[in-house]
Design a protein that fits this description.
Blueprint (H helix, E strand, L loop, with lengths): L8 E5 L6 H11 L3 E3 L3 E2 L14 E2 L2 H9 L3 E7 L2 E6 H9 L3 E5 L2 H10 L4 E6 L3 H10 L5 H14 L8 E4 L3 H16 L3 H8 L1 H7 L2 H6 L3
Parallel strand pairs: 1-7, 1-8, 2-7, 3-4, 8-9
Antiparallel strand pairs: 3-6, 5-6
This protein binds guanosine-5'-monophosphate (5GP).
The site of guanosine-5'-monophosphate has 13 residues, from strand 5, strand 6 and helix 4.
Amino acid sequence: MTGARRGLPFVVSAPSGTGKTTVCHRLVSEDADLGLSVSHTTRSPRPGERDGIDYHFVPREQFERLVRDGAFLEHAEYRGNLYGTSRAAVEAPLAAGRDLLLEIEVQGARQLRSRLPEARFVFLLPPSRAELERRLRARGTESEDVIERRLEVAAQELPEVLRYDYAVVNDEIDAAVGRVLDIVRCERAGRRDEVEARYGPAHVLAGIGGIAALLGTR
Ligand code: 5GP
C-alpha cells in the first residue's frame, strides 16, 4: 500500500480539575475520525469505568513486566499509580490512518516529544486559579488536604504549557471543544501556521493575564 495517510497523534494534558476527560470524550463523539488511545494503569477502576475501554487496569507486577518487555511508548508514576501508553495502543490506529487523542500527564508527554515526533501537543488550561480551585471543591468528594495537594501539583504542571504546541482555555466546555476541534482540523488540512497564531501558548497566556494569574502569584 503506498500513499496511505498515517493518522496524526494529539497529546492532551491538563492539571487535575481542568475538565480534560470531559473535553476528550466530547471530542471523539463529535469527530468520527478521531479515536482515544486506551492506556494501561495500576489504579483501581472508578465507578462506571470499564476495563479495556477507559483503561486497561492491570496489577503493578504486570505493568512492571510490560515495562521490562518494552511494551510502552511512555510511562509515568502519578499520584502513586503507574500509567502508560502501549506501543500497540497507538501503532495500530495510526497505521490504519486514524487520528488519535492521547490523554496523558506532563511527564509522559515529555517522553513522547522524542518517541512520537509527529505528535502535536495540546495543553488545556483552567481560566484562572480561582476557577480551578472552585472546580476541585465542587466535586465535593475530596478532603481539604487532597484539594490543597492537587493545587500544588497543578502549580507544578502549569508552567509546562510553554513546551506545548497549543494552549486551550477551558472556560466553557462547548467553546473548549470547539477550539481543540479547530486545532485538529487545521492540522489535518496542513494549516499549521494559522492555528499556531490562534493557540500558541504565549499568545493564549497573554489573553488570560499570564502564567502568574493561573498560579495565583499575583
Ligand atoms: P486518572 O487517574 O484521573 O484517570 O488520571 C490521572 C492522570 O494520568 C491524568 O493526568 C491522565 O491524563 C494521566 N494519564 C492517563 N493515561 C496516561 C498514560 O498512558 N500515560 C501517562 N503518562 N499519563 C496518563
